[in-house]
Amino acid sequence: MIPFIKIIGLFIVLNTTALSYGQRDYDRIPNLPKENLETKEDNDSYRPFNFNLTVKNMHLWRGYRVTDEAMTAANVYYESKNRKFKAGLWGGVGFAGNYTEFDYYLSYEHNNWTFAIWDINNYTDFPNAKIFNYDRAVTSHFIDVSITHKLEQIPLQFSWSTIVQGRDTYINSNGDLRNAFTNYVEASYSIADGKNWNLSAYVGAAFSFVSDAHFYGEKTGFNNFGLSYTKDLKILDKYTIPVAATAVWNDLQDYGALQIAVDLF
Q1: Ramachandran region of residue 97, left (φ > 0), alpha (ψ -120 to 50) or beta?
Q2: What single DSSP character describes residue 40?
Q3: Buried b (16+ CB within 10 A) or exposed e, 142-163
């Protein structure tokens, strides 16, 4: 069992680390797999349904190295006219065929607060899992609930996410399989930016209130910190493609990685 005072101290360190960076505009939504910045369309060009395709050299998520192989990520979604509500499907497939994922999500944004629910189904290591089976002993799913807040005075953003159901488990003292209810907290900030580029830093940590081990590692700690650089790549002076490079360090699992993501459309 992790002492509560240790959790509070960890969150204070997160806040202090984020506040040490400069003050620039930043619009990162850390609970979503897509890391690049997005520019919203005018209401006159509103389209309720849309989709996009991203290509990556590997797939990182909250410091978790989901796959080391190059992959594509497709996102099909509905968005309300006021841009506050979104519902969609997100799918990832590795080029070598060793990684497959199919997720559902809902999100709602209001007054710099964003609430999101993701049903994440990475069934790469669960070839026999049933698509609608949510039994924690055999399921390939886990449901992640998150809340994000962006400050108005400075471009500082915080998020708290909790896995509430699915394959986030531990065995208790009685030998029973129970949900660990893993939490992930993150603070992000922009270091510098220009007209078509942005350099940002972020730090995240994971823990559980009921178990030492959790979804992201064997103990409480910083599992996701690093830098992210985004820019608009111009092609033939006619097309603009968002590109993002993310360097991540994971202290819990002792590795670092560099992800390059290109939004094709």
Answers
A1: left
A2: P
A3: bbbebebebeeebbbbbbebbb
Residue 118 burial (CB < 10 Å; 0-12/13-18/19+)? buried
Residue 127 DSSP SS3:
coil
Tally the residues of the chain.
265
Q: Is residue 133 predicted with pLDDT exceeding 90?
A: yes
Say if pTM beats, i.e. exceeds, 0.90: no
pLDDT in tens, 185-219: 999 999 998 889 999 999 999 999 999 999 999 99
| Closest-CA residue to 34 (of 83, 74, 81, 67) | 74
H/E element, 12 = helix 4-19
Q: How far apart are CA 258 and CA 117, in angstroms?
A: 27
Nearest to 6 by CA among 209, 251, 225, 254: 209
Please give the single-letter amino acid code of residue 52: N
What confidence tens digit (pLDDT) does each residue in 143-189 have? 999 999 999 889 899 999 999 999 999 999 999 999 999 999 999 99
User: Could you tell me which residues come within 8 angstroms of residue 73 by beta carbon, excluding any fewer than 6 positions away?
Assistant: 33, 34, 53, 54, 55, 56, 59, 90, 91, 92
What is the Cα 22 distance to its own chain's centre?
A: 23
**How far out from the chain centre does Cα 131 lie?**
22
Counts of helices then strands in the chain (DSSP H, E): 1, 16
Provide the domain limits for residue 151.
4-263
Taking a C-beta distance cutoff of 8 angstroms, is the pair 203, 14 a contact? Answer: yes
Max Cα distance, the chain (Å): 65
> Domain of 153: which CATH number?
2.40.160.40
Q: How many domains does the chain have?
A: 1
Q: Three-state DSSP class for 45?
A: helix
